[in-house]
Design goal:
Blueprint: H1 22-51, H2 53-69
Helix pairs in contact: 1-2
Amino acid sequence: MLDRNRTDDSNDAVPSGQDLAPDDGTEAARRRRRAQFLRELHEAKELRNRVQPRRARAERMRQAMRMRTFRW
């Protein structure tokens, strides 16, 4: 299981033995950080929906209304 309280990500560091262009390493690190952020955001939204079911239901209704009134 992942440690959600951990703030440092040792996976972002590019090992010195690899000869990568600077853009490749920073792009890969950026993608890893973005993926981690999106996972945590999704988890936070699920938690909020569990602890606030009435608000979550209202949000689903608003989203459904937006989707019904959206023109393709």
